[in-house]
Specification:
single chain, alpha+beta, Beta-Lactamase, Heat Shock Protein 90, six-stranded antiparallel β-sheet, five-stranded mixed β-sheet, 10 helices, rod-shaped
Length: about 400
């Protein structure tokens, strides 16, 4: 069966080996010949991959010779070098068809064998006039060059495999993120229907037991909504280069924040939240330059996290202050302090708290809260001690001069 392989990849691989031009030049110097080449040789093809030609032999990279007319065909079969310095006086090669066909007087060729033992081709040199060199010395020198070429071929192949594996992994990650985004989007519609239905049922319930069940549905749907939004934001951030923040002037920031507090407290009726807010009725104190939707999401995530991981029965403290062009949101809960070595991991996606704590989640809430702060040009910090508990503090510039981090 004829070999119909495309050797463009082999030619390209050889061309990327920076040492090849120097190797071919040194082969010419070592032998005194005026043509040197690296050839890809198969059972039925001889293809030049790199050429240094001072005799106008007529070959360039990609050029071919009928493989049966070359000595490389024999080298491929026996994997042994061939060398002669004066063909017309040689007892064997004076009658051999290759030097007669191409009118060669001097010739040397060595096999190039990869680390896996595969025959790639040959490193060869030719000339139409006799050459004068010590055959044993030249063969040893060219053997080292052939090994150097083989090593570089292996390195190039390994690099190509690694790059392909990386490209495949990136593509898989991209499709995974797209899947998560689509899944999160498609989950929101039925969840909205569940929440509206639960609200309607709750408004009509008179039986205390049925009302408790309906409230449980409401609480679970709120929790699911938070999780879905976090997953969506994470997927959008991965696909689009970060969580988007769109600040604008908000005349009354306290009203939507108040709504978030009420919703979270409604979803966790067993929790006690002690609030300290900056004059909710004061219009001037409520005015801020920020993304109100994201700030509400930030508050929800911090408050949910504090309730989930705080000591059962202990109150959660919430402090919100808008002053000096800065919005400060602090959430404090009681419980076992966070080990110092775990604090750097808190704002990484999919990091979960360690130890026996209640209500483990996806680990996206604090990551997204941190990204929202960064998008506003602000910060999110945590301090955790046995005495004072764990305090998360978000500081967001809100005077209209903040430089977004995203």
């Amino acid at each position: 069966m004829p070999d119909v392989s495309d050797f463009s990849d082999d030619i390209d691989t050889v061309s990327r080996i920076e040492a090849v031009p120097s190797i071919l030049s040194m082969v010419k110097q070592a032998t005194g010949m005026r043509f040197a080449a690296i050839a890809r040789v198969t059972e039925s093809r001889w293809v030049a991959c790199a050429v240094d030609d001072d005799i106008e032999f007529g070959l360039a990279p990609g050029g071919e010779l009928p493989v049966e007319t070359t000595l490389c065909h024999e080298i491929r079969q026996h994997l042994t070098p061939v060398v002669f310095t004066h063909a017309s006086e040689h007892p064997v090669y004076s009658r051999h068809h290759t030097p007669l066909t191409y009118q060669l007087e001097s010739y040397v060729s060595l096999p190039i064998i990869t680390a896996k033992g595969d025959f790639f081709g040959t490193l060869c040199a030719i000339d139409t006039v006799p050459a004068h060199f010590d055959e044993a010395v030249v063969l040893e020198t060219l053997k080292l060059y052939a090994q150097l070429i083989a090593m570089n071929l292996d390195l190039q192949n390994d690099l190509r495999v690694s790059n392909q594996a990386l490209a495949d992994a990136n593509e898989i990650a991209h499709f995974r993120d797209q899947f998560v985004a689509v899944l999160g989007h498609d989950l929101r519609s039925p969840l909205t229907a569940v929440r509206l239905s639960a609200d309607l049922l709750a408004s009509r319930m008179t039986n205390e037991r049925d009302l408790l069940l309906t409230q449980a549905i409401q609480q679970s749907s709120v929790r699911m909504g938070t999780l879905i939004e976090n997953v969506l934001d994470f997927a959008r951030g991965k696909l689009g280069g970060g969580i988007t923040v769109e600040p604008r002037w908000v005349e009354d920031l306290m009203s939507p924040l108040r709504g978030v507090i009420d919703e979270v407290c409604s979803a966790h009726p067993q929790a006690s939240v002690v609030e300290t807010l900056s004059l909710p009725g004061d219009h001037e104190c409520s005015r801020a330059y920020c993304d109100p939707v994201r700030v509400c999401q930030l508050l929800s995530n911090l408050l949910e996290n504090a309730i989930t991981h705080g000591r059962e029965g202990a109150p959660v403290e919430l402090q919100i202050l808008v002053a000096r062009d800065e919005l400060a949101i602090s959430v404090i809960n009681q419980g076992s302090p966070i080990p110092p070595e775990l604090i750097p991991m808190l704002f990484q996606p999919f990091s979960r708290s360690q130890g026996k704590q209640r209500g483990e989640g996806l680990g996206l809430g604090l990551y997204i809260a941190s990204e929202i702060c960064s998008g506003h040009g602000g910060t999110l910090e945590v301090v955790s001690t046995e005495l004072s508990g764990t305090r998360f503090t978000a500081l967001i510039p809100c005077g209209g001069t903040a430089q977004p981090g995203n």
